[in-house]
Amino acid sequence: MVLFVSFEVDKLYRLKDIEIGAELKEISGIEFDKYQRMWAINDGGDGPYLYHVQRNGNIKRKILVSNGKNIDWEDMTQDDFGHFFIGDFGNNDRKRDWLTIYKIENPIDIKTDETSAEIIKFSFPKKRIAKPVSTAENTDKSSIESNKEIEYESLAVNYDLEAFIYFKSQLYLFTKNREEPFDGKTHLFRVGRYAANFEAEYINSFTTCTSFQMSCWITSAAMSPDRTKLVLLDSNRLWLYENWQGDNFFTGDVYSIDLGIITQKESVAFFDNDLIVFTDEQFKGIGGNAYKIKLSEAELTKVQSAQ
User: Fold this and answer.
1) Of 121, 109, 97, 125, nearest in space to 33 by CA
2) CA–CA distance from 156 to each of 178, 199, 280 (Å)?
3) What is the CATH number of the domain that holds 227?
4) Residue 119 · residue 151 · CB < 8 Å
5) Count of the separate structural domains present in the chain
6) I need a labelling partner for 146 at 20 to 30 A (CA). Which of 43, 86, 96, 155 fits?
């Protein structure tokens, strides 16, 4: 057992690039601008700040999103013009009906230590269920189904969420599964990229793993600069998607990449079309780093062929 754990730790730490500065102790999202500089955010507990991370891991610059709140910032993505989107949509207790995405200008164009954001709001589709028509003991399911005038009510389905990407003028959300019993699925939804109120549109679902809930949670997502590769991150692996149809990413070829020991991995981004950077939070002396892996050198395990 000790040898196995040591091997798993070594597998992860062979990918280590830098130690992240202490201000980003709860790093939850990263992106690279066109000059390949890293930007990062913390999750809830920090203010509404965007951080410029130097190549040695230290913080060079801190930008305030003046009209933002960091209830639970969880991920970042960017559009073709370099505008950043910050997802304030963590929903651990699933009590938030409306979630927020902040769209800010390209960080290379921000000349001061403050910027303002466009605000995108969205909710998940509501589930329609039949209202009870009787409390009598002899009211059965078939009589309810045959009643053409039955009334329905709508109940909110509030998913937890930590991952999203930009693709072809839309934003795509990948839920963090907290269902009981746990079925390992991440659900794919779509919302608009501009300031408005949206109801997220469901597209498809994909089962990552069902072995251990916390190791199967999707915590971040990234799209390659050439828009041909998607990766999702969980606590000990990357999921790579290619050759999908339209915007249904789960119809393509799917591979898993083992990243070694389970740590609190929270953010992932493409540095270029081959090199991927991911980070984890520090816990009991392990983590708090940025790691890098090249897809061309990674050991890929195929789990699905394109449909």
Assistant:
1) 109
2) 15, 11, 32
3) 2.120.10
4) no
5) 1
6) 155
